[in-house]
Amino acid sequence: MRQTTGSMICPECGKLIGVGEEKCPFCGAWRPGLYGWTPVVQRLFGQRLDLIAIIVMGCVGLFIASLVLQPEAILQMNGLFSILSPGQRALYQLGMTGGVAWREGWWWTVLTAIYLHGGLLHIFFNVMWIRSLGPQVEEVYGPARAFVIFSVAGATGFVLSDVVSGSPSIGASGSIFGLLAALIVYGRKRGGSMMTMQLWQWAAVMFAMGFFMGGVNNWAHAGGFAGGWVTAQAMRFSEKRESRGVQLLALALLALTGAGVVLSFIKVTSLLLIR
Ligand SMILES: [Zn+2]
């Protein structure tokens, strides 16, 4: 998998150089080959590592897992929003944040909780939003930057809600607010007022709806918007090529989220076994 000989494209300046080069002879980038790992990362992103598809598959896969882990919860229906609603225990096992998870200091749950949903309608609407906003953000920022925005926005929302309310929390809504914020940031820098106005309206309507519907985590929404805004401001979208740093950050966040689900599962399951 690792490539230690031959040539590659420098991730910083785009010129052809040797993989083993200590410093790029053209731009001076330090260790451009990253001990043979840069070609691997480039191949991953070059063959369109479809991060939006991974997000959607993560949401759907974990939703099914949360139902299978605690099947008796499916029967406890009361109302439209509790159709196919996973149980508390299953959700904690897969990385729900707040509540016990926050008191125990399971910090990674601010990432894993993004991919968990509380019912069929919850996941349906969130996946719909991700599928319509995600590709747009990917188009203007690039896939790695889009994934970083999505993850950091969601995590910011949950940190805020964990600190302020501390109640158990799940859902990609905070990340979706982050995607909206990223598109607004882009629109403002580009000066496209029509599109930006539309996006502000969506954000306002979605935020207002949160106050009318029960069980909606408004702190996660506000935090997600703010986190997405700040992260998007820090990103460059003028150049098509994403830096190696951002690509590695995206892969690290992806790996951390996956490991977090496993870690939560081990922690919660072992707590249950002690009892
Ligand atoms: Zn270079």
Automatic annotation (TrEMBL):
Keywords: Hydrolase, Membrane, Protease, Transmembrane, Transmembrane helix. Signal peptide: none annotated. Residues 106-232 form the Peptidase S54 rhomboid domain. GO terms for molecular function: serine-type endopeptidase activity. The chain crosses the membrane at residues 51-69, 106-125, 146-164, 170-187, 199-220, 248-274. InterPro entries: Peptidase_S54_rhomboid_dom, Rhomboid-like_sf, Rhomboid_protease_S54. It holds the Pfam family Rhomboid. Belongs to the peptidase S54 family. It is found in: Membrane. GO terms for cellular component: membrane. GO terms for biological process: proteolysis. It is a multi-pass membrane protein. The keyword Ribosomal protein does not apply. Coiled coil: none annotated. Its main location: membrane. This is Rhomboid family intramembrane serine protease. It comes from Eiseniibacteriota bacterium.
